Amino acid sequence: MKIKDIVNRDIVTLTNCDQEPIHIPGKIQPHGFLIGLTAEWKIDFCTDNISSFIDITHSQALGKTFETVFGSKAQEQIFGYINEEKIKDAFPLEIELNGKLFQISIHKSFDIYVLEAEPQFNKEKLADVYTQTIQFVTQMNNTRSLKDLCALVAQGTREITGYDRVMIYRFDEQYNGEVFAENCREDLEPFLGLHYPHTDIPVQARELYIKNLLRLIVDIDYDPVPIFTVDDQENKNLDLSLSILRSTSPIHVEYLKNMGVGATLTISLIHHDRLWGLIACHHYSKKNISPEIRLAAKLQGQFITSQIDIRQSNDENISARKSSEALEYLTALELPLVEDTLKTIVKTPQLLQICNAAGVAIVFRDKIYKNGLAPSDEQINTLITSINEAKINQLFSTNKLSDHFPQLEKCSNFTGIIYHPLGSSDCIIWSRPETISEINWGGDPEKSIIKDSTGLHPRNSFNIWKQIVKDQSSNWKQFEINTAAQYAHALHNNLMMIMLTEEEEKYRNQSEILRETNLELENINWISTHDLQEPLRKIQMIVSKMMSDLNGEPENPFSNSLERVSKSASRMRILLEDILKYTRIKNTKEKLEKTDLNLVLETTLDEMKEVIAENNAVIEFEELPSVHAIGFLMRQLFSNIIQNSLKYASPERVPAIKITASQEPVIIKDLFNVYCYWVRFSDNGIGFEQQYAESIFKVFTRLHPQQEYSGSGVGLALCKKIMQTVGGTIHAEGKPGKGTTITIYFPCDPEDSLL
């Protein structure tokens, strides 16, 4: 049988150090040994140092069954432990192997069971550990802030574990670390408040911290122990992500040596499935701790992670409550719906308090209303132009404006903003000035990896390196952004109401002016048309008398002139009468009622019998329907249509008018989407070009000279106005020299359509 080691000998360089496969080093730390079992209990992996703990070498163990090497009793104990999930994660298995006592931690790596054995520790006094833990929980309940809790955990962890230094290490969003709390020996230089770049703990290391919550390095000067396996397949390896004996990256070991550290314990702090931070314990000599102490230390980490949300909420609760109270105050203000209200709103202190801003500006209709340490008008206009060019049409917040808009880099009075649009060109902007801060790094963050003639190394200087941070404000907290957004929505609604109120008032004023103007015009129209008839009658009477006096003098030159004056006065009187009729129709208030058009036609023909007889006209008609209309208007309508046919009769033939109608309601798709009746007047007159079919219904529109055909040009306009008044419509079709057809349409009720 051939065996081989699985030591990873890949060289770490500047280009791949962030991809170092630290989960498969192929080596362990020497304070214990490791074996890997297949599902058939065959020993497939074994460390070189097994002979340091029991009387067997790795080559003797590999390929054999576990029972052959360690006996059936040990195999039964391990089998029972593997299947007892409840206790496996809490305490290792205490077992005798070949006459020696060990504690074994077991986990599964794909299809291999990994057994990690350490010599059994002296029994800790569990009562002391329990007492310390209970005491810690009692003290924990007396803390309020997250920082106080972390300080208490640092103290409690150091008391339980005995390490020289215990730090609570917290990550930011980019995984740069900060020593958030610390407890250490009095003679040691404190690290509290120092920051460390994200490169100190690379991505793959953070991933392992999430998988394996506890990590021990017992002696930083250890010699790694290789893992051997049966050489029965290519690229055979063993994932040690969950191992407690896993050998550490050489770069990390050198990093710790540069810090002077002799041993470490690291406990992961996981919050919402993300690595929130670490409990980092340093000792300046070799140090190992028992399983009981390890468990107690893990509990310390769980105390923190279980309280992060609560303590952060407590830390923010006071400020958040003040913001909420400010928002409630602003939204409860009862102010008039006028633009000047913005002057009151912007001066209200609560407008700054809702997001703890230093300044605020409201831009509405190209006017700027501002308060506090707000930007200048020029800066605000530049900012809005930049935001519009970036096509930002929703809430936008930043604590470093120059990162997004370099042209605003020099605006130190508003390096942080919350911007919310309020319409096409309106917005509200909360601002904060530049906050110059000093960050103390544990060494230059730009020199976390060093390359020299001997290869790649972590930095060896941890002297405090100060960084001055400018051009940014304090961070906006999420509750501040949320509260600002809520008020921006409320303000937007108020601005919409202001504009609607102004529009309503404008329309109201315009309607009132229009109503008064219409009344004046109607009065003028009525007075002018009514009062002008009296002088016209006098003119006609005088002219008539003068013409009577001149009957005996047919050759008198004044006779022809007087006749023209008489005709002109007559036409003027007819025009005024038609205008009065048009006004009467326009202002009618009568309701529609069921009207029998047969009676209307009968009355109309009776009133017009003399005119019809004078023109020798022939009028044919059939049964007409009953429609919803106004009786006197229908008589006016019929009279105007018939008079129009008689007026424009052809001199070449006897005038003939035929009146037809629909006997049942029908749908005329081009006109109505409801059923309607139609009535059609067809004559054999002079007709007209179809291009004038619409214009003939306009007031004072004439297609022929006054000398050829008399009339005011109002008749058909009256017809159209009548049909509009009763909810119907009128259409005309003409053929020059052939005649004209006028059709009127009356929409009917749904009940009528079912008849």
TrEMBL record:
SUPFAM superfamilies assigned: ATPase domain of HSP90 chaperone/DNA topoisomerase II/histidine kinase, GAF domain-like, Homodimeric domain of signal transducing histidine kinase, PYP-like sensor domain (PAS domain)
A single MF term (Gene Ontology): ATP binding
Annotated ranges, domain Phytochrome chromophore attachment site: 145-302
Top-level taxon of origin: Bacteria
E.C. designation(s): 2.7.13.3
Domain Histidine kinase intervals: 527-750
The keyword ATP-binding belongs to this UniProt entry's keyword annotation: yes
Keywords: ATP-binding, Chromophore, Kinase, Nucleotide-binding, Phosphoprotein, Photoreceptor protein, Receptor, Sensory transduction, Transferase
InterPro entries: GAF, GAF-like_dom_sf, HATPase_C_sf, HATPase_dom, His_kinase_dom, HisK_dim/P_dom, HisK_dim/P_sf, PAS-like_dom_sf
Family, similarity comment: In the N-terminal section; belongs to the phytochrome family.
Record's protein name: histidine kinase
Species name: Flavobacterium artemisiae
